[in-house]
Target: DIA1R protein
Amino acid sequence: LSQGLPSPMLRCPSQRLLDRIVRRYAEVPDAGSIYMDHLTDRDKLRLLYTLAVNSHPILLQIFPDVEGWPFPRYLGSCGRLVVSASTRPLRDFFSSAPEMAADLALQLLAVLRSMATNDLNYFFYFTHVDAGTFGVFSNGHLFIRDASTLGIIDKEEGSQLIDGQQEYKDIFSCLTVDCQSPFVPCDSIREKHSLVMVCQDLLPKLLAGKFLAPVQERIDTFLHHCAHGLGDNHSANEAMAELAEILKPLRSCDSRFAYRYPDCRYSDKY
Model:
């Protein structure tokens, strides 16, 4: 049923991922079964339509924040209206103080790291990022605000993309995307994919001109190198560790960062 859906989330599907979607889909009274017997035809149509139009609410349900995933809490939906916890978009912080910018950049790196390496062996990658992709709670904690552009590759089972699926079009495809829009081949996605996109489109806007010359030069040099793909000698984890080492001394520990205050006064971990 999911073949050909335009959602980035299902471009590289695995049976394990599909089972998780069905089991955790919360818009039915008896969610929890890995079979679709508990879904009426109307439920199935609603699930497929939501996946086709905007997979964001589905991702919030199957990877909930209470389990440590960097998404806002899903509270419910009605039609195309989705209710979740409120955040401010990252764009609101592009002109923030240097210590705030450094803190948000470090959190952004931590989110990318958790999306690439986690206990469930799912590799999350962005197909697009912009200033509204990430948001910040009132306590200073950064989350993924718009998950609709996230793709998922199952590192445990691999992709079960069948021959010809890229040409297959479901009945909803043309509602949201160009019908001729090509899929990104699953085997072309590298671990650096999301980091490079963030280095191109977000980190320069967040970190530009914020720090004293020697530090700013190191940051600018790194971002330039990162935006051009990092080369073959850098892994994503090594690159993120390099930038984190520059940024950590630049953040501060005070009540503006309530998500880690006052713990940061007693431990370098925060």
About this structure: The mean pLDDT is 84.
